[in-house]
Amino acid sequence: IRGVAKDSTAKFSYYMQNPAAAANAGLDDANSAIVVKGNDVSIKNCSVFGAQVGLSAENVRGLTLQNTTMDGCDIGASILQSSEILVTACRLANCRKYGLDVEGSSDIEIYNNSVVGNTNGGILLKESEEGNVSGNLLSQNTFGLALWTASHCQVRANSADHNEYGILVTDSSNYNNITDNVAEDNSRSDIVTGFGIGISLQENSSYNLLARNRATGNFNGLELSRGCQYNAVYSNNASDNRHGIRLNENRNNLIFGNNFYRNDINAYENTSLNIWNTSIGNYYSDYRGRDEDGDGIGEEPYALPGPESQSLDRRPLLQPFHESGSNYTAIIAEVAKYALFPAAVESIPTTAVANGVVVISRKARSSPPKWSDSAIQDSFDPSAPPFQKEIKL
Known about the structure:
The protein is mostly beta strands. Helix content is 6%, strand content 41%. It starts with 7 loop residues before the first helix and ends in a 32-residue tail after the last strand.
């Protein structure tokens, strides 16, 4: 299918000449090669080139997109307010906005796709839940995969390379499991090699699990930034990055059982209060402490570098850590046991009285940049238990 690109002038002229057609249409409706309006629809073995939107689906229950190519579109596939979605064995490439844009949807399976060379982003899950994103190749996008106010998702065994952000979890995305992914050689330009982020949690994203991921050759291998709390970072390998892991303006995140080696700076913390060990800490290739009792744990703590950092790993490991069958329930218990710092002042809502009205406000987030239609909201449910979906490691 050779699609029609966006052309507002031509559309306006058409509607001016055909006013009856304009009665139930809008100038902002996308030129879509494939439009899905029914339920239980399968699209297989198709190729779409150059459309404003390759496939458009809204308010659909039951959609399969399989073995299909969307190339050179503005958006490869746009799926809005839908459920029971399967996208598999597709190529989503060279789109000017997103390869796959899923918003306001649930029960989403996205696996074994090639998502390459999309200008804004590869896969976007926005204001969605219960997504399973696994086994995808995410390469040469601004972000490979973004969870944006998305919760209860499983992100597993994806390969993200040569993006600005390999995997981005942001804007109050909570209760997600990010496991067994490879984030390698993500960079923000061809000139500054490695100046990109492997896996990033940002902007009040809490109760997430990062486990058994590998981050190599990035600027920051793993990153937690601004208001992220009660996340568990466990059994990851970060090597040959500028920073193995970098934390900025967070507290009450638990980081243990990870291996940080051959990074310029293995671990870095700025204006944060996090916990860097349970009964075990992390392995740092630049640790030079003693192990007098032979238990594999250093006698001297490892001091986390960074401005205003007061954190210590009190149980640094002398040898790389190899996990042996832990599970999510045990990690939950460790977070509850160790993450006991009081809330940061800036994260506590400010209460004021103006003209007899009580006003409760919270400091607005400043980064990363938002889409213009993103409302300020807080999806965090403090009554919900963390890591609700139990999967054995």
